[in-house]
C-alpha cells in the first residue's frame, strides 16, 4: 500500500522534474479514449492530452452504439465532456488515423500514443449466401438507427417481410430485436435517427427470431436487457420448454456465474409465463436455441435476396475448464425470413505500421503496452505506444469495463515513465498539438475541435426540441461539418 | 455543484475558495494527495452540503479507498452514498449519474451488521450488480444506499480493479 502511494507521489511530480510537458495523443474518443485521457490528466500534472477521432462527433459507441431508448446509459457523456473541457485536453474531430495522419507521424509528434479506436468491422459467419441482399451486420443496422454517417445509406428493407432473424443472443442482438418490435410511438421520443424511425413506422416486421448456437445457460445477454425485451407491451414471447433442460455441466456453469444463473431464471419464467399462442396481430419474439446457421437461402422470386436460413441443430460438448461449445448434429431445418441481422461480434481493423493479431482481432499487447509482433515475446515492446479498450481486449464488455482497462494501460504508462523506459523520447520536447495541427492544415483537413462539436450538439438539441426528442442527429458529413463551422 | 468541483479537481479554470487552493497547493508540493483529502474532509465534516436549509441530521460514514486510505465523512440523512462521496471529493465513479444504468458506483459494505440493515436490492440494482467488478456477498451500488440513522458508522470499501487486491487486510470474498 505504501509503495503504491509513493509511486503516485512520483508520478504526480514527474512534470515538475521534466522541463517540458508530456504530450499524449489518444486515437479514439469513445469510453476507452476518454477514461484513458481522464486518468492521464489526473496522474500526470502538466501533461497535454489530445484525443483524435475520425468522426466530427466524439464519444464513440456511447453515441453510435447505445440504443436510443437507453438514454441513462449515455449520461457518462457528461463526465467525458468535462474531461474534454479540461485546459490540458483537446478533442480534435474529423481526423482519421491512416488517412489524415499516419501512426508513424503521430509517434514522431507525441511522446506517447494510445490507440483506443475500437472495432469498426464484423466477424463473418463464413457460410454461403452471406452476400445475399437482406443479410446485414447488426453493427451497421445499429449505426443506421443511431444516425452514424456511415450507416445512413444502409436502407434495410423492412417492408418485404414479416419475419426477421437475428443471429446471436448478446446485448446488441437484443437491442436490434427491441428496436424492431417496440411500438414506434415509444421510439419517436428518443434520439433515434429520423430515417430509421420513418422506416420502422412503415415496417411490416411482426416476428423476430433470436438464434443462438448454444443453450439458455450460455446466452450472452445480460439481465437488464433481457428483462426489458421480455417486458415489451403486448409482445408474445416464445421459448421452447425442452430447450430449458439443463445438464450437470450447465449447472456447474451456473454455479460459477451469477449472471448466467439469473439469465436462465428469467428465460425459464418467460417460457411458462405467457399464453401458449399469440393472439391475432400480436408481435412475436422467439428465442431459438441450439441452432447454428449452415447457409443463407436465396429467394426463388427475388434473385439475390435472402429468403431464409438453413439451420443445423447443435449439441453441447465440454472442452475443459467449465466451457461448452456447440457441435453440429447433422440434423437441419429451415427458418424463413426476409431479413437477417448478424450479431456475432465486432472486429477491429489494423492500420499501417501497427502490429496486429489477425486471429484474435486485437493489437498484441501486455497490459496495454504494444508488442512488436505476435510472437508473444513480452520483451519486444513498441516504446511509447499503448492500447486500450476493444482494440486491446477484443470487442466484449460494457462501458465500465473500459474504466479498468484504462487504469491498467495508464498504470503501465506511468511505470514506464518512472522507470525511465521512455527516457529517450521524454528527454526531448515534442511538437504535439501544434505540430499536428500544422500538418493537418497543410493537408486541408478540417479539424473539428470540441467547441465546434458543442455547436453540433446545440443544433441537434434544438432540432430535437421541435419534435419532442432529446436531439435530432445530423447524419451526413456535410451537415455535420457545416454546423461545426470552419476552424 | 460540489460534484463539478470534484470532477474539475485539477483543472485550473474552476472557481475554488482560497482554502481549497491552499490545500491543493500544499498537496501538490508534498505530493501527498492523501493529506489533501483528510484536510478537506475534516473541513467538511460539520458542513451540511447539498443545499439543506435546516441543520440536517447526519450519520458517520467511512469510505475506504482503493489504496486503503480511510476517509471518515458525515452524510446527511436522505443523501445517497454516491452523492456523499462526490461531495467529499472521494473517488467513486458514477458513470450513469445514479440512474441504475451502470455498476461503476459499486461499494463493498465492510460488515454484515450494516449490510443486513439495508433494504433488499431491487431487480434493477441486482441486474447492475451482475456486472460489477470484484462483486462480493456484501456488495451494493453506492447510489442506492441512502443515509438513514440505522446506518450510522457504516464502512464502505471502494473495490480496486483487480479481484485479488486486499484493502488493509480486508479480502473481498468472491461472490
What low-confidence regions of chain A span 5 or more consecutive residues with pLDDT below 50? Answer: 1-7, 12-17
- Averaged pLDDT of chain B: 74
Q: What general form of chain B does the structure show?
A: globular
Annotation, overall tally of beta strands of chain B: 5
Q: Which assembly state applies to the chains in this document?
A: heterodimer
Number of helices of chain B: 6
Q: Strand portion of chain B, in percent?
A: 5-15%
Cofactor (chain B): [2Fe-2S] cluster
GO molecular function, one term (chain B): metal ion binding
Pfam families (chain B): Fer2
InterPro entries (chain B): 2Fe-2S_ferredoxin-like_sf (IPR036010), 2Fe-2S_ferredoxin-type (IPR001041), Adrenodoxin-like (IPR001055), Adrenodoxin_Fe-S_BS (IPR018298), Beta-grasp_dom_sf (IPR012675)
Summarize the structure in words.
The complex is a heterodimer of chains A (487) and B (175). Chain A has 487 residues and is an alpha/beta fold. Chain A has two domains: 198 residues, 3-Layer(aba) Sandwich (Rossmann fold); 225 residues, FAD/NAD(P)-binding domain (3-Layer(bba) Sandwich), CATH 3.50.50.60. Chain A is 35% helix and 21% strand. In chain A, the strands form four sheets. In chain A, strands 16-17-18-4-1-2-3-19 form an eight-stranded mixed beta sheet, sandwiched between helices. In chain A, helix 3 crosses helix 15, helix 7 crosses helix 8 and helix 11 packs parallel to helix 13. The N terminus of chain A is likely disordered. A five-stranded mixed beta sheet of chain B has the order 2-1-5-3-4. In chain B, helix 2 packs antiparallel against helix 3. In chain B, strand 1 and strand 2 form a beta hairpin. The longest helix of chain B has 13 residues. Chain B contains six helices and five strands. Chain B has a domain of 100 residues: Roll (Ubiquitin-like (UB roll)). Chain B is of the alpha+beta class. Chains A and B meet through helix 1, helix 5, helix 11, helix 13 and helix 15 of A and helix 6 of B. Chain B: Keywords: 2Fe-2S, Iron, Iron-sulfur, Metal-binding. Chain B: GO terms for molecular function: 2 iron, 2 sulfur cluster binding; electron transfer activity; metal ion binding. Chain B: Its cofactor is [2Fe-2S] cluster.
